[in-house]
Write a structure and sequence with these properties.
The protein is of the alpha+beta class. Helix content is about 35%, strand content about 35%. The radius of gyration is 15 Å and the shape is globular.
Length: about 160
């Protein structure tokens, strides 16, 4: 996967984490993972369609998700991963992917995102048919967030 396709996702993640999540992120070592990948306790998948096809999956511990949700909800206490918290974490994932796709559009790579789908559980695995994932680990004071990106060109 080309760096010029990944950088918008990284920039969007840093921006949304800082503005909405009220935390800064540090990027860990990038790696590749073959499908299927093992998620974390909270996983949000956002599909990408158009000039690029694939999935972007955000994985985090439940504690990280509840803290992120609380920050996104302007400090509202979030004790458990209830429907409001799930909605906030899904919206975080949607905003990151949407902003990245918007930046790609500025480069004449036209894509859309599908509504986010959240999966909660300890044994979640996610597949992307015939694609490998680029894994972007982010460390924040809220906890770690891993972003798995599996994209290919629609005509390729």
């Amino acid at each position: 996967m080309k760096a010029d396709l990944i950088n918008p996702f990284l920039a969007a993640a840093f921006d949304i984490l800082e503005r909405m999540g009220k935390t800064r992120a540090a990027r860990g070592q990038l790696s590749l993972a073959s499908s299927p990948v093992r998620g974390d306790e909270v996983n949000v998948a956002v599909g990408v369609t158009g000039d690029l096809l694939g999935q972007v999956i955000f994985c985090m511990a439940e504690r990280t998700a509840t803290q992120l949700a609380s920050n996104m909800l302007m400090g509202l206490p979030v004790i458990a991963l209830d429907e409001l918290a799930k909605s906030a974490v899904s919206e975080f994932s949607n905003m990151v992917t949407g902003n990245a796709v918007g930046e790609l559009g500025n480069r004449d790579i036209i894509c859309s995102v599908t509504p986010p789908a959240i999966f909660v559980g300890k044994e979640v695995t996610v597949s992307a048919k015939d694609l490998s994932f680029l894994v972007i680990p982010l460390q924040t004071e809220l906890g770690d967030v891993k972003i798995y990106i599996a994209l290919r060109e629609a005509n390729g």
